[in-house]
User: Which sequence fits this backbone?
C-alpha cells in the first residue's frame, strides 16, 4: 500500500489494513506451522500456574529477557561522557550497530561510535591490523581529542591484547605517541552493561593518573569528585550540577554525557558536545574525596580511587528518595565544609508535602520491580518511605551480598517483610511471579510491556499495569530527560506512581452513574 500525503498513517493502524493483514496471514499459514488457537490458549493458561512457576524457576540452561545488556554497551555510554571523545569498539560491526541502535531508540539521538569491523580472518589471526587501520581512520575522519577503546566477544575469545595493540599502533605511526587512547577489556559473555561502564571508567582514570601520582596531593584542589555510574536519565546529571552549585561546592562530575545525548535542533550537528575534560580527570586525585553514586556497580572504580588516589571513597547509597538524598547532601556538606542552603531545604519540604498529599493513594500498593542493582535498591527504599509494598524484586546481574543487603533493608520495614528478592533471574521468571502472586503494578523498562499484555490476556482481574521507570525506555518519548535522583527525582517518581494509580482507577471505574464514588469531579 502506498502512503498518501493527505492521509499518512503510522504503523498502527497502517498494518491493520487489508493487504498487510493478508500478507501476515499468508506468512502464518504457509511458513510458521503454528498450533491451533485452542492449543495456544491451553499452553498459555498452563504458563500462568504454580506448577509452571516451579518448572520455570528450576531451569538452568536458558535465559529469557534477562533485563541486562552486555559490557561494551556500558563502555560506550561511559566514553560518551568525556569531552570530544569517540567511543571505539574492537570487534564486529554488527555489535556496534546494536549499541548505537539501543541508545538511538532510548535517547532519540544520534550516537557516535565506531568499530574496526573484525570479520572471519581477524577471528583466526587476531585483530591487530583492524586496530591499526581503525584507529588511524577514526582519528582522521572524526577528529576526536581522545578515543576510548572497548572490546566485544570475538576479540575476547581469541585473546586480543588491547594494551599491546594500541602500543604497536603508536610504534607503527598509526596514531601519535601523545594521542590519548584509554581502553578496557569488556567481554560480553560475563558481567553486564554496568560492569562495562565500571571497567571503562576505571580504565580511563588509570590511563591518566596511574603513572603520574608523585605530584598529587589529596585535597589540594578543594574539589569533590562525583562518579555517576551507568546513568541514563539526563536530568540526573543536571540535578547534580544544580545541587553542587546551590551549595557552593567545587566539584568534578567525572563522566557527563548529558549534552551529547540531548543536543538542540538548531541546524548544527554536534558529534561532540560537553563532557568531562581530560584536565579534570588528571586533576581528580587532588580532590578531597570521591563519591560513587552507584556503589554496587562501581567495584573496580572504588578499588582504584581508594588504592591509587588514596581517597576514602566513603560508602554512600544512591541518592534516591528522601532519606538517601539527605545522606548524600550531608556527606557533601561534611567533606566540603559547605552548608546545605535554604533552597534545598525548601525543595526537601516540598517533597515531604507531596509524600503526605499522595500517601492515601500509595499506601499498601504492591509493586514488582526490576533493573540495575543500585537503581532497584534506591527505588525500593523510596517505595518503603511512601508506605508502598515491594513484592517481587529482580536484578539479574546482582550478587549475593547485594541480595543480603536488600533483604535486610526490606526486613527492617513493615512494608517490605513480604517481598521476594531474586538475583540471576530474568523477566520470564518475573512473569511467573506476577501471575502467581499478583502485585498492583510493575515498575521497570519497556520490556515489561510483554508481561502486562499477558496479564491482560488472562483477564482484566489479572491485569498488572507497567510503570516505565528504568532503562531502556523504547516505547515512550522523552522520559530519558526526566530525573530520578535527589529530591527533584523523588518528586518525579512520586508523581509518576500516584498518577498511575489514579489512571488505573479511572480505567476500572469508567462507567457512568455506577462507579461514581470519589466525586473528584462534579458536573
Assistant:
Amino acid at each position: 500500500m502506498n502512503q498518501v500525503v493527505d492521509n499518512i498513517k503510522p504503523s498502527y493502524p497502517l498494518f491493520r489494513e487489508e493487504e498487510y493483514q493478508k500478507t501476515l496471514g499468508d506468512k502464518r499459514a504457509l511458513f510458521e506451522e503454528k498450533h491451533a488457537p485452542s492449543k495456544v490458549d491451553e499452553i498459555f493458561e498452563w504458563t500462568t500456574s504454580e506448577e509452571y512457576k516451579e518448572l520455570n524457576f528450576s531451569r538452568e540452561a536458558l535465559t529469557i529477557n534477562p533485563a541486562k545488556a552486555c559490557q561494551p554497551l556500558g563502555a560506550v555510554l561511559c566514553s560518551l561522557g568525556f569531552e570530544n571523545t569517540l567511543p571505539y569498539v574492537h570487534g564486529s560491526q554488527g555489535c556496534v550497530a546494536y549499541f548505537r541502535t539501543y541508545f538511538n531508540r532510548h535517547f532519540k539521538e544520534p550516537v557516535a561510535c565506531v568499530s574496526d569491523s573484525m570479520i572471519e580472518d581477524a577471528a583466526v589471526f587476531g585483530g591487530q591490523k583492524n586496530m591499526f587501520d581503525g584507529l588511524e581512520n577514526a582519528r582522521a575522519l572524526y577528529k576526536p581529542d581522545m578515543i576510548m577503546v572497548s572490546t566485544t566477544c570475538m576479540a575476547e575469545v581469541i585473546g586480543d591484547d588491547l594494551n599491546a595493540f594500541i602500543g604497536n599502533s603508536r610504534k607503527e605511526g598509526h596514531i601519535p605517541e601523545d594521542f590519548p587512547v584509554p581502553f578496557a577489556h569488556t567481554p560480553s559473555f560475563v558481567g553486564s552493561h554496568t560492569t562495562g561502564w565500571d571497567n571503562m571508567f576505571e580504565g580511563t582514570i588509570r590511563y591518566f593518573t596511574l603513572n603520574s601520582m608523585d605530584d598529587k596531593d589529596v585535597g589540594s584542589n578543594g574539589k569533590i569528585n562525583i562518579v555517576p555510574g551507568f546513568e541514563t536519565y539526563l536530568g540526573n546529571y543536571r540535578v547534580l550540577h544544580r545541587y553542587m552549585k546551590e551549595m557552593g561546592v567545587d566539584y568534578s562530575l567525572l563522566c557527563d554525557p548529558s549534552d551529547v545525548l540531548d543536543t538542540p535542533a538548531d541546524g548544527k550537528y554536534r558529534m561532540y558536545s560537553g563532557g568531562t575534560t581530560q584536565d579534570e580527570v588528571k586533576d581528580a586525585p587532588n580532590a578531597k574525596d570521591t563519591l560513587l553514586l552507584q556503589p554496587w556497580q562501581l567495584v573496580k572504580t572504588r578499588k582504584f580511587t581508594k588504592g591509587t588516589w588514596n581517597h576514602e571513597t566513603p560508602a554512600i547509597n544512591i541518592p534516591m528518595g528522601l532519606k538517601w538524598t539527605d545522606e548524600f547532601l550531608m556527606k557533601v556538606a561534611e567533606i566540603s565544609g559547605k552548608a546545605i542552603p535554604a533552597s534545598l531545604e525548601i525543595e526537601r519540604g516540598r517533597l515531604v508535602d507531596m509524600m503526605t498529599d499522595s500517601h492515601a493513594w500509595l499506601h499498601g500498593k504492591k509493586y514488582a520491580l526490576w533493573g540495575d542493582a543500585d537503581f532497584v535498591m534506591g527505588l525500593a527504599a523510596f517505595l518503603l518511605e511512601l508506605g508502598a509494598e515491594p513484592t517481587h524484586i529482580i536484578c539479574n546481574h546482582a550478587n549475593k551480598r547485594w541480595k543480603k543487603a536488600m533483604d535486610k533493608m526490606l526486613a527492617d520495614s513493615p512494608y517490605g517483610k513480604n517481598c521476594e528478592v531474586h538475583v540471576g533471574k530474568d523477566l520470564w521468571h518475573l512473569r511467573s511471579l506476577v501471575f502467581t502472586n499478583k502485585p498492583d503494578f510493575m515498575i521497570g523498562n519497556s520490556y515489561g510491556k510483554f508481561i502486562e499484555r499477558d496479564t491482560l490476556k488472562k483477564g482484566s482481574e489479572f491485569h498488572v499495569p507497567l510503570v516505565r521507570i528504568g532503562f531502556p525506555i523504547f516505547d515512550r518519548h522523552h522520559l530519558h530527560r526526566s530525573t530520578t535522583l535527589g529530591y527533584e527525582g523523588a518528586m518525579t517518581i512520586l508523581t509518576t506512581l500516584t498518577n498511575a494509580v489514579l489512571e488505573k482507577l479511572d480505567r476500572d471505574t469508567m462507567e457512568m452513574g455506577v462507579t461514581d464514588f470519589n466525586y473528584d469531579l462534579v458536573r
The chain has a mean pLDDT of 96. The CA atoms of residues 41 and 108 lie 37 Å apart. The radius of gyration is 25 Å. The first helix runs from residue 11 to 14.
